[in-house]
Amino acid sequence: MGLLSKKDAKLITDPLADNNPITIQVLGICSALAITAELEASIVMSVSVLFVLGVGNVVISLMRNIIPSKIRIIVQLIVVATLVIIVDLVLKAFAYELSKTLSVFVGLIITNCIIMGRFEAFALGNSPWRSFLDGIGNAAGYGVILIIVGFFRELLGSGTLLGIPVLGDPIEKTGLYSIGYENNGFMLLSPMALIVVGIIIWVQRSRNKALIED
Amino acid sequence: MEHLELFLKSIFIDNMVFATFLGMCSYLAVSKKVTTAVGLGAAVIFVLAITVPLNWLLDQYLLQPGALAWLGAEYADYDLSFLSFIMFIATIATMVQLVEIVVEKFSPSLYNSLGIFLPLIAVNCAILGGSLFMQSREIATLGLATTYGVGSGIGWFLAILAIAAIREKIRYSNVPPALRGLGITFIITGLMAIGFMSFGGMLTGGDDEGQKEETKSAQVETLNDTETELANNTKVIE
Hints:
Chain B: This is Na(+)-translocating NADH-quinone reductase subunit E. Chain B: Its EC number is 7.2.1.1. Chain B: It catalyses: a ubiquinone + n Na(+)(in) + NADH + H(+) = a ubiquinol + n Na(+)(out) + NAD(+). The complex is a heterodimer. Chain A is mainly alpha-helical. Chain A is 61% helix and 2% strand. Chain A is globular. Chain B has one domain. Chain B contains 12 helices and no strands. Chain B has helices spanning 2-13, 16-20, 24-29, 34-63, 84-106, 108-114, 118-122, 125-136, 142-170, 182-197, 209-219, 221-237. The two termini of chain B are 38 Å apart. The model of chain B is unreliable at 206-230 and 234-238 (pLDDT under 50). The chains are: A mainly alpha, B mainly alpha. At the A-B interface, α2, α4 and α9 of A face α2, α3, α5, α8 and α10 of B.
């Protein structure tokens, strides 16, 4: 990559797999699980977090030398809250139905541990450009897991992807349904999100033995 | 009766961890030992019991459309609800700091057991989630808001206590290496959540269903989508 030095590129690629915020750092699970019953909601959530984390990291990084360390948590919360209000208003204006589905979980981006975690761990000690890359990388790592979970839950749970039926019509018994396949409605319930993430962690750690805990 | 119903509902049916996944980060990070889990759980109950009613007052008299009417007729059509995120989180952050200072001053022993967890709590999604759900479910009175806060806190406390106890035991089990630690915790939480779903039927069989329906319609909105989809699916299967 011409634009990015090797060190900078690592900031983006690392969180995608070996230092993934959800499966390795265990951050940001809260909002990750509740809204993944549909692929579309997962994608919108990922994009929202991408925006908040990217911009927020830059803002915090620019202010890092003037924030007194005692009140930094409140300053960080105010920055995130402002960005989240922007996201919330944009969603309400352009995708009202979706913002109903996401309901309080848009607001909960504020307390998404990924965001505070990255502010604390990275943006407070690095230049704006590097912080921006770090934010983008971590948000992308978060998004990847969200999209994988959303993909499987929607596909197995309702036989659709982004609301488009891909496995045939369950009422007319076409496609896969003609040979007796049935949707697994259980995938749409919240506990399955946890189990799907558990399985993703299992697969990832089986492939990369270095990540296994004691 | 209303209070008892909301109380049980917020502990078991709408359990913060198992139904809405709030506060998962600290739930996973601080559940390795029962003693620390109890400390954090107690702190969460404490803070929720304070912030939910406080944010209810803010919502009622400052943020809701028309809430400023008490200032005079010319303020009646103000709608500040877009500010609720920032107001809620500011209230929570300041309350947490305040509680920390007060507890440190008056009860050093309580401070020693809760102290390290209090700063963590400002960014615990369960706390902000409690206030946001309180707002979106349109809880009617200050008393009910307090009940809701305490109930949700106790629900969270139960959840972290249970998982901490299980994790202490599971150390002696033969878990596949790749699942050890985080992976198995996720799967156990999922199974516990399935267990908690069985509480769902607990409060549905009432006779004043129609009256309750109205207040509840807002409450169930968040889960509605999955539920209707599920209902459609079962219909299809039949």
